[in-house]
Every structure is written in C-alpha cells, then in structure tokens.
Design a protein that fits this description.
With 161 residues, the chain is of the alpha+beta class. The chain has five helices and four strands, in the order αααββββαα. It has one domain. The protein is 58% helix and 12% strand. The termini are far apart.
C-alpha cells in the first residue's frame, strides 16, 4: 500500500469511526495522531518543511515596474549542475526565459488537469447524484480574467491616489 493510500485509509477510517463528517483536514489529522494512526518520521518532517517553504515561496508577491502585483518565485523542472532533472525555484526578477517558459507550461498543464478533473466530477454528480437541473460549467476564463484585470487596475489607481 502506498503512503497516499495509507493516508486515504486514515481519512476513511476517521469517517467510519463516527467522527464529525464532513471534516477539516486538521480534524482528521488530530484524530489520526491521537489514535496513533500517524507518526512523524524525519523524512516526513523534511517533506513537510519543504512543502511549507514552497507554499510560502508561491505566495511571495512583489510589484513590477508597471505596478502589477506578481508572484516572485516560480518553479520549473530544469537540469541541475550535475545533469539531473529537479524542480528548481527561481526569482522572476532574475530567472531565464527558459525557466519561465517551462514554469508557465507546467502551470498551464496543471490548470487543464484541474479543469478536466472538475468536469469529470461534475458530470458524474449530474448523472448519479443530482436530483435537480444539471450543474453547468464554463471553461472559458476570459471574462474572469478581464474582471480580475479590471479589479487590479482599480486597486492600482486607489493605491496611487
């Protein structure tokens, strides 16, 4: 059984044990630790630290010369000094074009994957569990992006004023 499958079993056992459901990941984790279903290993702590650092880097925002608030750090699968491949973080203010291109392509693929997963989930819900009218999704994000750009422009004007 993989580690992910073990964690999935813990979550299912939490629900089967009559614990409050739906539940937060914190509630499930607290139950798992209290019931000796999960113990931190040194490698787990390193991975947790790495995950938290990555989340912090992903959320670091700087302002560019045009006043846009942008993410400072981007990750890309790139060759290392020893010729291996690794996910390397770099700063948008100093990174190469190749790093940004790989990062943007990877992120776009992830977004497409999330959209596909959402479509399959909603299609299944509509066909198997939805007693009402089908939930309709649009994957044309142009109106959303236009709204976000307009809001960012408005916020930039308010900051200057």
């Amino acid at each position: 059984m993989t580690y992910t499958e073990q964690l999935q079993r813990i979550a299912n056992d939490y629900a089967a044990a009559g614990q409050p459901w739906p539940a937060t990941k914190i509630e499930i984790a607290q139950w798992a630790i209290a019931n000796n279903r999960w113990q931190a290993q040194p490698s787990t702590l390193v991975n947790l630290c790495a995950q938290e650092i990555a989340e912090a880097m992903r959320e670091e925002i700087v302002t560019d010369k045009q006043g846009r608030r942008i993410r400072a750090k981007h990750v890309a699968l790139m060759p290392t000094a020893d010729g291996e491949q690794a996910y390397l973080w770099d700063d948008i203010r100093t990174m190469s074009r190749e790093h940004m291109l790989v990062s943007a392509q990877t992120e776009r693929q992830q977004i497409a994957g999330w959209c596909y997963r959402l479509k399959v989930d909603v299609d299944s819900f509509n066909q198997n569990a939805n007693p009402g009218s089908p939930i309709q999704l649009s994957f044309d994000f142009r109106p959303d992006i236009a709204d976000m750009e307009a809001l960012a422009t408005l916020e930039a004007v308010e900051v200057v004023s």
